[in-house]
User: Which sequence fits this backbone?
């Protein structure tokens, strides 16, 4: 994205971006996604984490232990990428791997006590980052925005 694409109004207040572009939900979502990703990635990096770390820890905390395949489905992380994420989390003692008693060829991943503490810290970091991202919206508008995005994503997840 060029600087001109990211700024909608020059100093004199006249629109720089044509209205027909500002009315396109796909374009607005794309631009907001770019800004959101940058904000979240930089904020998590300051907390010595990545968004995939958060996704795995949240999945383990909310849904319980699981195999790598299960965690891949829950978190949306490709199985091949998940191995690296799990290695990073295991090196930091945030998750524990143990052989699956039903199938010794695979591991069951569990969040560790240290991982639970780290997840609580990341929740706070993300709460603050989302407050920054959604600052212009009221609490009711934020809830509605998340509900609408969830509805759109659920619809397109079912049809793809």
Assistant:
């Amino acid at each position: 994205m060029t600087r001109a694409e990211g700024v909608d109004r020059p100093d004199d207040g006249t629109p720089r971006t044509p209205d027909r572009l500002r009315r396109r939900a796909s374009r607005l979502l794309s631009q907001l996604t770019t800004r959101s990703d940058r904000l979240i990635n930089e904020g998590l990096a300051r907390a010595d984490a990545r968004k995939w770390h958060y996704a795995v820890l949240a999945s383990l905390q909310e849904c319980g232990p699981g195999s790598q395949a299960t965690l891949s489905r829950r978190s949306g992380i490709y199985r091949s990428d998940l191995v690296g994420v799990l290695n990073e989390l295991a090196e930091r003692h945030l998750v524990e791997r143990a052989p699956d008693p039903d199938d010794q060829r695979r591991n069951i991943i569990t969040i560790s006590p240290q991982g639970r503490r780290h997840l609580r810290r990341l929740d706070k970091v993300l709460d603050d980052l989302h407050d920054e991202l959604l600052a212009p919206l009221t609490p009711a508008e934020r809830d509605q925005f998340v509900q609408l995005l969830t509805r759109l994503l659920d619809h397109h997840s079912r049809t793809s």
In short: DSSP finds eight helices and two strands in the chain. The radius of gyration is 19 Å. The longest strand covers residues 103-111.
